[in-house]
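quick one, 176 residues, struct below
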Amino acid sequence: MRLEINGCAIELIRGDITLEATGAIVNAANSRLAGGGGVDGAIHRVGGPAIMDECRKIGGCPTGSAVITTGGNLKAGYVIHTVGPVYRDGAHNEPTLLANAYRESLSLALSKGIKTISFPSISTGTYGYPAKAASEVALKTILAFVKAHTGLTLVRFVLFSDADLKTYSGTLLRLV
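---
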């Protein structure tokens, strides 16, 4: 699925984020930037040790924030590491923290002159955020950001499963 807003294409695809050739890919990281499973582990495995070397120098990243490293061996030039919230029940600031993770990633990309960026579904794996609720927060945040800022030409969601693609597509159709 694809649509254009304010000169920026918003795309939803099913795929493997480690294969993306956008200016940056976003890593659903942990606050210690210590690598892990899921998207985080895959990005570190494919990207190689240069990413972890830079993560160690940075030291950490609070929930809702973002930091940037090299893309290492990835096709993407950079990895923006962001930390989404661990989902408890939706009443512990999770939507705000998740929105901040997306917004901070986009702001960091713009500040570095990056025009194209690929996101996974942040916090919906190990952190347990329900995909439908997460898609609502993610897409509302992305749409508001691209309406308010110029400079990005592509924001792509690279979703791991058909179910996530269907969820995100349904949410995007409702929001536009």
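The chain has a mean pLDDT of 97.
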